[in-house]
């Protein structure tokens, strides 16, 4: 799908993942079985129908994090992102990578960082083994 956007005198076309004006999605069907109340489902549908960006805001404890997990995981602070990661890790089948400086991550979240996932991969473990053998060899000299 594409969307044409005018910026001043210049017209640009960009690829999009949302329906064009002539297409629709069955949002209700897509959210059956999710643990969202009716107002949260409405917020998710609203966010998915927005063409560029949707802002979800509200007072503490109103379910913003639970709702946002259903759409996209991004937040304005490390604490908010950590909360999202914790919610995402309790959801089955969700693969995610926590982007951020590894030293600023909570210990239980580090395994979801890019560095943590690389280290846990087969290639990462092989690399660690090769580095260990190199260090052992150099230490003998």
Automatic annotation (TrEMBL):
<dbReference type="GO" id="GO:0005737">
    <property type="term" value="C:cytoplasm"/>
</dbReference>
<dbReference type="InterPro" id="IPR050534">
    <property type="entry name" value="Coronavir_polyprotein_1ab"/>
</dbReference>
<dbReference type="GO" id="GO:0003677">
    <property type="term" value="F:DNA binding"/>
</dbReference>
<feature type="domain" description="DNA2/NAM7 helicase helicase">
    <location>
        <begin position="71"/>
        <end position="136"/>
    </location>
</feature>
<protein>
    <submittedName>
        <fullName>DNA-binding protein SMUBP-2</fullName>
    </submittedName>
</protein>
<dbReference type="GO" id="GO:0005634">
    <property type="term" value="C:nucleus"/>
</dbReference>
<dbReference type="GO" id="GO:0043139">
    <property type="term" value="F:5'-3' DNA helicase activity"/>
</dbReference>
<dbReference type="InterPro" id="IPR041677">
    <property type="entry name" value="DNA2/NAM7_AAA_11"/>
</dbReference>
<feature type="region of interest" description="Disordered">
    <location>
        <begin position="1"/>
        <end position="20"/>
    </location>
</feature>
<dbReference type="Pfam" id="PF13086">
    <property type="entry name" value="AAA_11"/>
</dbReference>
<dbReference type="InterPro" id="IPR027417">
    <property type="entry name" value="P-loop_NTPase"/>
</dbReference>
<keyword id="KW-0238">DNA-binding</keyword>
